[in-house]
Amino acid sequence: MTNLSNRTKNFIIVPRVLMMFVFITIFLLFSYSALAEVKTGAPAPEFTLSSPDGKIYQLNQFLNKQQHLILCFVNSDEPATLDKFENMINFFLDYQPRESYQIMVIVGHGQDLESALERLHTLREKGEIPQIILIDEEGKANADYGIEKYPTIFLLRTDLYIRKIYDRFNARQEKSFYQYLSFLFTSQKSKDNNNGCDGGTCPPPPGFE
C-alpha cells in the first residue's frame, strides 16, 4: 500500500516539475531574446507612452522625422539623474546644433513624480530645445530597454536604429557622451568661431568609429 501511494505521488509530482522546468526555460529564452535585441545597431524597441497632458506618443511616429533622436531614461526618485538631464539640456542650449533632433525624456513612475515633472517642465521652458516628457507608469518601456541605472541614454538614427547606448553615466562615460555629441552635431557658433575642427565638425573621440 505504501509503495502504491509513493508511486502515485511521484506520478503527480514529476509532470508538475517538468512543466515548471519548461515554463522557466521558455521565460528565460524570451527574456534573453528581448534583452539581446537592445544593443548598438539593433532597432530600438517600440513603445507607446503618454505625456503629462495626456497626449499619446509612439516611437514609430518619429521614423525618418529627425536626424537624431535621443531617449533619456530618468528616475523621479533620484534627483541626481535629473541633474544629468539638465546638464544635457544646457549642452544643447550652449552648442546650438544645426542638425534636426528630438529629445525624449522618459520618467519612471515614483513617489516624487510630481516634483520631477515640475522640474522637467521648467527645463523645457528654459530655451527652444525640442523635448518631450513621457511617463512610464507601468515600467514597460524601462523593462523593454533593459534599464538598470539612471540616467540611461540611447542615441537613435533617423531610422530608429540604436547608434549608441550610455548606461553607466559615470564621469568618464559622461565625458565621452559629450565628445560624441560634439562629433555628431555641428554647432551654429562654429560658423563664426574657429575651434580647431574642420567646418565645425570635430573628429570622434578615441574608440568611436
Low-confidence spans:
21-36, 205-209
Q: Please trace the helix and strand order, writing H or E for each element.
A: HEEEHEHEHEEH
Shape: globular
Helix percentage: 40-55%
CATH class of the largest domain: Alpha Beta
Level-2 CATH architecture of the largest domain: 3-Layer(aba) Sandwich
Write structural notes for this entry.
The chain has 2 domains: 1-37; 48-191, Glutaredoxin, CATH 3.40.30. Helices cover 40% and strands 18% of the residues. The chain has 5 helices and 7 strands. The protein has a 5-stranded mixed beta sheet with strand order 5-4-3-6-7. A two-stranded antiparallel sheet has the order 1-2. Strand 3 (68-75), helix 2 and strand 4 form a beta-alpha-beta unit.
How is the topology of this model organized?
Elements: H1 2-37, E1 48-50, E2 56-58, E3 68-75, H2 79-95, E4 101-108, H3 113-124, E5 131-136, H4 140-144, E6 152-156, E7 162-166, H5 171-184
Parallel strand pairs: 3-4, 4-5
Antiparallel strand pairs: 1-2, 3-6, 6-7
Helix pairs in contact: 2-3
Provide a concise account of the structure shown.
By secondary structure, the protein is an alpha/beta fold.
